[in-house]
Design brief:
Distance between the termini of chain A: 8 Å
Order of helices and strands of chain A: HHHH
Largest interface: A-B, 16 and 17 residues
Radius of gyration of chain A: 11 Å
Number of helices of chain A: 4
Mean pLDDT of chain A: 90
Order of helices and strands of chain B: EEEHEHEHEHEEEEEEEHEHHHHEEE
Radius of gyration of chain B: 19 Å
Largest sheet of chain B: 6 strands, mixed
Strand content of chain A: under 5%
Mean pLDDT of chain B: 97
Oligomer: heterodimer
Structural class of chain B: alpha/beta
Strand content of chain B: 15-25%
Shape of chain A: globular
Strand order of the largest sheet of chain B: 6-5-7-8-2-17
Low-confidence stretches of chain A: none
């Protein structure tokens, strides 16, 4: 079963220049330092690779926090 | 299952023509910071693209590519029985540009000419169409022309499209030959994703009105500004589609023909962007050497990417060796297709610039 802690760490790893300690489940990901449209693709790629789950653009657009995305991933594993 | 297979059809040659004018992404004013620009170039792998002069059309690029190929093949024009033109930037809404090209290329008036409206998957679909026309031996020679001048339907103020796409036209020559190796195909279509890459207005669903020309900003970003007669791309949807469907399709075809991954010399993929294409390559466990890229210098050139990559990246191998090849196109439609084929010392002229 996917764990939120693990998921947040995997998202944090996509941001090279931002301190991993700043990443929390309740973070609004769009407000994270270094967030841009490319990072959305990195998240989709990470989820595809690590969880074998396909995320669509709407899944990202309709989510606010890292935990919102995690819930979608969890429901599709 | 969407597999097709043809005997008796031989790929004889490939040529490509691009405009001289180069646009460097490093000079692009579209990015808020140099850091974001560098990240864009590093992850897409696209450093520059070719952009046509406003007066040049896709068919002008094709003409040059086709004339050179016909002459290098030593083909008499009256021996060309069919002409397939794959583009989404035709000369006119009507008539079909393939008819205009029959005349411009000086082909016989007993020539089968057909336009196909596909983008990224278009070369593979076009190959299947022309192979099916030639396989019975009534038609002996065919030309497949693939490419686009997408710069004409992009907004220069849209960072989600303008720095990605380039213009190119290509010609591929095929011939009936009873000694030819088999060509195998796998196809897929998912029209539920039709709005992922779309020009919303100007067709007959939403005819052109004054509003079509109004620029709007996506997500309040002035660098995501376009009008409804210009191409809009949902990068996230296309990305998740590509990284799942392309490897699936290639795997299905490999399994169908009973081939090992390592037995194929080159896998030529549609050139979307480096990040997406590298994920596809890694999922398929292919080596760097097996997967050539033309993205760096030409970007995404729609249905031209596969033949353009053959011409610019592996031309010397194609001319001197016998090769086992796999091609895979995926994108606008959504539409995708894979093709397994062999080449035997084909004619592959150096890239032409106009």
């Amino acid at each position: 079963m996917p764990e939120i802690k693990d998921f947040v760490e995997k998202v944090a790893a996509l941001f090279e220049d931002t301190d991993a300690a700043e990443f929390k489940p309740e973070n609004i990901f769009r407000n994270l330092e270094g967030w841009n449209s490319l990072k959305a693709l990195y998240v989709i790629a990470m989820v595809d690779e690590e969880y074998k789950v396909e995320l669509k653009g709407d899944d990202i657009q309709n989510s606010q926090t890292i935990e919102d995305i995690f819930k979608i991933v969890k429901s599709r594993v | 299952m969407a597999f097709l297979s043809f005997d008796n059809v031989q790929l004889r040659g490939v040529s490509a023509c691009v405009p001289k004018r180069i646009q460097e992404n490093i000079s692009s004013p579209l990015f808020p910071s140099d850091k974001e620009k560098a990240e864009f170039i590093a992850s897409t792998g696209i450093e520059r693209r070719r952009v046509v002069d406003i007066k040049i059309t896709t068919s002008d690029l094709y003409c040059r590519a086709a004339e050179k190929l016909i002459s290098d093949l030593n083909w008499q024009k009256e021996t060309i029985d069919c002409l397939i033109f794959v583009t989404q930037t035709p000369d006119y809404i009507l008539p079909a540009t393939s008819c205009i090209l029959q005349d411009r290329l000086g082909l016989t008036d007993e020539c089968y000419a057909l336009d196909i409206s596909l983008g990224c998957s278009g070369w593979v679909y076009g190959m299947s169409t022309i192979a099916s026309l030639l396989a019975q031996g009534n038609f002996k020679r065919g030309l497949l022309l693939c490419g686009d001048t997408l710069s004409k339907v992009l907004s220069e103020k849209d960072k989600s499209t303008w720095p990605l796409f380039g213009d190119a036209g290509t010609a591929t020559a095929l011939e009936y030959n009873t000694n030819a190796n088999k060509i195998d195909f796998h196809f897929g279509t998912d029209g539920s994703g039709s709005d992922a890459i779309i020009i919303p207005d100007g067709g007959f669903r939403n005819i052109t009105t004054k509003d079509s020309f109004e620029y709007y900003e996506q997500a309040g970003d002035e660098m995501l500004s376009r009008n409804r007669l210009q191409l809009s791309l949902n990068g996230m949807d296309v990305f998740s589609f590509g990284i799942s469907r392309a490897p699936q399709s290639v795997n299905k075809l490999l399994e169908h023909i009973g081939a090992e991954r390592g037995a194929i010399d080159y896998y030529v993929f549609h050139q979307a962007n480096k990040f997406m294409n590298e994920l596809i390559r890694k999922k398929l466990k292919l080596t760097d050497e097996q997967v050539p890229y033309s993205l760096k210098n030409f970007g995404n050139t729609s249905s031209a990417t596969i033949p353009l990559t053959m011409v610019t990246e592996i031309r010397d191998k194609l001319e001197t060796k016998t090769l086992k090849m796999m091609a895979c196109g995926f994108g606008v439609g959504l539409s995708w297709a894979s093709m397994s084929f062999a080449t035997e010392k084909i004619i592959c002229p150096e890239i032409i610039e106009v």
